[in-house]
Amino acid sequence: MTETKKPVKKPRGVARLIENKCIACGARCQSACPVNCIEMTEAGEPIILSEKCIGCIKCVKVCPSEALEMYFTPEELKILEEIARQQEGAAPAVEEADDEAATLAKKLAVYKNVWVFVEQTEGVPARVSWELLGVGAELATARNTELCAVVIGSGVEHLCAEAFCFGARKVYLIDAPVFRYYRTQSYLEATCYLIEKHKPEIILMGATGLGRDLAGAVATRVATGLTADCTGLAIDDKGNLMQTRPAFGGNIMATIMCDKFRPQMATVRPNVMPMSPRREGATGEIIRESCPVREDDLAVKVLEIISDSKSKDSVDITAADFIVSGGRGMMGSDNFRLLKDLADEIGGVVGASRSAVDAGWMPQDRQVGQTGKTVRPKIYIACGISGAIQHLVGMQDADMIIAINRDKEAPIFEVATYGIVGDLFKVIPAITARIREIKGAKAA
Ligand SMILES: Cc1cc2nc3c(=O)[nH]c(=O)nc-3n(C[C@H](O)[C@H](O)[C@H](O)COP(=O)(O)OP(=O)(O)OC[C@H]3O[C@@H](n4cnc5c(N)ncnc54)[C@H](O)[C@@H]3O)c2cc1C
Ligand code: SF4
Ligand code: SF4
After folding, report:
1. Which of 325, 331, 385, 409 should be mutated for ligand 1, with most atoms under 8 A from CB?
2. Coil, strand or helix: which one is 220?
3. Residue 410 has what pLDDT?
């Protein structure tokens, strides 16, 4: 009988900084580390938390100045020498890489289903939740898994039926008085409780004030990745979520993956995804859960809710069917009166480019674009707006775009359904006058 020798595990070592070699390149090593075990000093040099280091060598490979090396203890060096002797002349072992991939695959396989967090205020759902169920359904089909909704609140069971109508097959419901008002701590506990128990592979939330707050807190707690403000979501051939969003000031679109951690989390702004079709009477399974959060444990108390939605000038441009937007070409705040006149005639609202907002001509809540709102009106009239990419990402999905600009080369014409090359100070009053004329003739 021959005795089979147990293979010795190859030591991986830990990363170590070589003195005086770091050129403070901007923390490439930290970005490369998959287990967050590199902290940066104020001088931009890494501190490696060796007790957390898994010896993956990624930091060593990305360092442009060869300032990092792998450190092995004398005992580990002896084992390495022994392995090298054994392998002399033999084919290189692939067992180790296979081991790592298999462990990761096993870890990820536990996570299943696509979840959409249903945002609500006093039982009124945010529309973006239903938009997300639409794209969530596509992802669930691509992964051959179930689309589920998460409803947390007080007196919110009616939202489960709504979620079924918009495509969810299952709803995880936590309904208790302590969840009446959104507070980060209570919703974080409830969401993490559900994640821990049911292990979803993808979680989508609206990139609203609430969604951004909750998603960031949850991703930090469960130690996974989060991509904010995605404009595209799809599944790659390995089954990972491809999360696309503008990067570098909107000049490129980056596709971000979170292939080693679960759940994969993304937020999407309202109006970015098309509304999912409503299937009246659809049903599904409600899974009632209770999470032990007590009012006494919460540091934040809601004393009073003061709504600003009814204030004199407040306008929700994201809900408007018709938007007349002005840019730097408007030349001054007073000239926005021309846009208001036109908007009033067509039952619309006035929007603005960031230049117009930065100039103080319009309030920030009217800004359309990457750092403003995303809109999907039936008609968007862009007046004196050049069509920078950061503006286009906020309005290019309008059903019809009419652009008025005196520069025929302006990029806005590339996305416009109809373009008018001319002076807006002549064109806009002429359109308004013509609409009034038609309306007058009809009334007579
Ligand atoms: C990180 C980042 C985020 C950003 N986010 C946003 C955002 O959310 N929204 C946004 O809008 N921008 C955003 N921007 C700014 C963006 O890059 C542009 O600078 C901005 O959109 C330009 O605004 P504008 O088209 O009004 O002005 P301009 O680019 O100056 O264009 C003015 C246009 O008016 C036309 N015009 C002038 N006079 C007349 C006239 N009498 N009649 C007809 N046409 C006339 C001109 O031909 C010109 O095309 C962002 C930029 C960065 C870097
Ligand atoms: S070797 Fe890997 S785990 Fe260790 S510090 Fe470098 S990147 Fe992080
Ligand atoms: S990657 Fe290299 S040069 Fe850049 S910060 Fe890290 S150690 Fe320094």
Report:
1. 385
2. helix
3. 96
